[in-house]
Automatic annotation (TrEMBL):
Any Pfam family matching the protein: Acetyltransf_1
SUPFAM superfamilies according to UniProt: Acyl-CoA N-acyltransferases (Nat)
Origin superkingdom: Bacteria
Protein name in UniProt: GNAT family N-acetyltransferase
Entry-linked InterPro entries: Acyl_CoA_acyltransferase, GNAT_dom
UniProt organism field: Streptomyces lavenduligriseus
Span of domain N-acetyltransferase: 76-213
TM spans (from-to): none
Amino acid sequence: METLRDVLDAVAAGRFPPPDGATTVLPQPSPRDAGVLSLTAHTVVFTDEDPDWVYRTLRSVDSDPLAASMSPRFLTALLDRTGRTAETIDAVLVGDPLPGEPSCALRELEHPGHPRVAYARRRRDGVRAWAADGGVLALGRGVAGRLEVSVEVDEGARHRGLGRLLVTAARQLAGEPLWAQVAPGNARALRVFQAAGYRPVGAELLLQRGRPV
C-alpha cells in the first residue's frame, strides 16, 4: 500500500489489507484530507504527522489493540496533535457503478443553494447536484479523490422509497465506485444505502481544518 488511494481502490474491488491487527500510516492525500480509516482488523491513519508518534501513542492507549485506533483517547490525541476538529465517526460504504438511466426524474442544478449541496462543497471538489421531486442528490470528489455521494429527502417525501431511488440513481450517474459516509446512528440511512446495493467496508473519522460547521 503506497497511497491512501491505492487502499481505497483495492477495497472497492474487494481486496482488503490483511486482518493482522496492524496499523498502517500513510501520507495525507491532500492538505485537506487527514483521518483514520478502520477496516476489518487493520487500520489506516492518513496524516502528515510523524508515524513514530502515531505508533507510540497507539501503544500507550489502554484498550484492546484492535480498537485502539478508534478509541476516544487516541483520536483526541490525534486531534490535539494536528490542531484539527472532527464531527463523528462514520460508517463507510461503497457501491459499484450501475448501467442504465435513473428511474426517477432528475434535474441537474446549475446554481444549487440547497444546504446539503453547500455542505458537500465544503468537503468535496467538483460537486454536481440534481433535484428530484422531494429530494436532492450530490456527487463530488472527497477523500483521496474518491467519488462520494450525499442525498437529502424532504420531510414530506419520506417513507415513500425516494431515498433508495436517489442513492441507486447515484450509482447510475457515477461510472466508477461510489462512496458514502453515514453516521452509524442514522440507521434509516444505513438501511437505505444497503438496500440500494452499497456494501459497508469500514469506519472513518475525518480530521477537519478549522471549526466544524
